[in-house]
Amino acid sequence: MRWPRRVVSVAAFLLLLVAPPLLLVRLTGWPVPAWPSLAQVEQWVADPITTQTVTGALTVVAWLLWLLMVGTIALRLLARVRTAARWMRRMPLPTPLQATATGLAGVAVLGTHTGTAGTPVLGQPATTTPTVDNDRGDLREPQSRQAPDQPAEAAGVVVPGGWLPQETAEQIAAAGALLWLRRRRSYRPDVPDPARHDADLVPLPAVVAAAQTAVATEPDGPRGSTGQGTPGAGRQDGDASVVVFPPGGVSLTGPGASDAARGILITAALQALRDPRQSVRLVTTHADVDVLLNPHPRTASVAGIHVAPTVDDAITAVTSRPAPSPVHRGEDQTGQDRLLLLTHAPTSPQASSRLAEIVARTDVALIVVGELPASDNWSVDSAGHIHSHHDPARRRGRLCVLDMAAARDLLTVISPADVHTAARTPSPPPLVPRPRTPHHTDDETSTTPRRSDAPVLRLRVLGGVTVSFQGTPVVIRRSAALQALVFLAVHPHGATGRDLVEAIWPGLPAHRVTGRLYTTMSDLRKAMREACGAAPIEHVNDRYRLNPGLDVDLWRLHHAVRQATTAVTDRTRAWQAVIDEYGGALADGYTWPWLEAHREVVRRHVIDAHVALADGQADPRQALALLQDAIRVDPYNEDLHRRAAKILTALGDHAAASELLDAYAQRLAQAGLTPTHLLSGTGHQDL
Question: What is the pTM of this model?
Fold first, then answer.
């Protein structure tokens, strides 16, 4: 118990504070009982060292030491009082979400009935957004701490190379998911090969992974288990993003001007991706793109962005093109409904006056990187905060900021090339650049799968994630530990601590979460040891690896793929073994950003097996059944639908072929995709 020690400490403190003055007063009296007379001063000057003067000097020194101790204690107490006062001023009041949760908890515990539920006010800006606060995926409510004269804070995402408003991060996460659907749609099955080198299986850039991790905030279900820690992306970080560009144009200056211009350009492209009906949202020039992006080959083809040869051509484009149709205020992340003209500061007075004239005559929002007379000057720092030109200490909001590498990565994800991939044909350049730090992508293992009835620890990662020992489930308490376990199953040859950190906590410096990784792996080992008496995770030379003796269904599937590709006889049974080992999508239900590439590898193995069996069937109906099973594995693959429709057409069932392709086109439309030229044309004549 701690209270006896605290009582003793308080007693000792009081004794030290009270006892010295009492003893001094009792033994020597007060240090200065009365002011000395002139005669006493003359006597002291004549004979300064006497027993009385020495005693008096020692008494004064003792009193000074006691006063020094009292002053030190007073300063310590004053500092604590100030700290408590600051905490009280910043003490967060319950947010609407917390109040609702408290009310629901009261209903659940006490069984009372609340009269009415709170109704949110439409159009009222949210000041807090739940964000993942620990490696279990728990939610916390970030609190606003801005001054009364500052705008309400909005959630933001810190990503490698910049800062994103929450809505922009959600759009980037959706664009990343849409890119994987494009890759699934365009994949062409071919001769199966266990060593996949498909060019479109590279992971998405780190900035996209950080955004995807930040927006996955559901803590309990598998889809929200991000394993994100407190210092991670997605925490509330910044002031309210700007929603309106003022009339007369805006001059972006300061160290973050170019980064803010890149953020505006990316945001306009994201808005056009979300609403294709508004064809052009931003007009710029080739010279501006070269300065901001060091030219990017895909900028000219990005939806929503019109790149003109010169400033004069850009001005002609904005004056001749109708403005985008209005949208609801607040939905547009660029902060306004008008067409944007983004350029650098002109070098001639004539060009400046023409820009000013265009702004005066049209509803175009002019954004200039650099000084522009007669415009509102926004000084942007490297974090995106806008400072007033007259009062630099006061912030006016925050803009999305991205460095050149992050902006180029996002442009490539937003507007990828539609490439049909074959496993054994020369591959085109990757759709997205490889991450700045390479990840291991080896999905093979040299271990021999154990018998399914052997008394070993079993790990199932196909169709979900379950761990069991002799039929008893093993509980993994931390979602980050579960994620690490699946990551090691996907990488049977092992992974370094840096690989695990970059996968589980994307976008964070490795040194900031190394301690969290050690805690996660320690908890995982403990759970395994409690279940089976041993920790089947090896750690040698900073490399983690699962014991090869584990029973992992993913390893059995890869083993079956290798057996099928090397089989000389009875290949039908070998490919059927691959299909039988498939229990569903890899870690189905989880949305970890690193997972999608490995999930697609498994999916393509199984698709290849179905197509290989279908190509070897003499009966077209059996081949059709195999293709239909493959479509269930990946309902977005276009080549599978084309093959199935071709067989239906050959069998004379044209209505079923048209129904299949129409349903597929509707599925793509619901996902935001369109069929490629393979299925284009009225009546699907290319079949």
Answer: 0.68
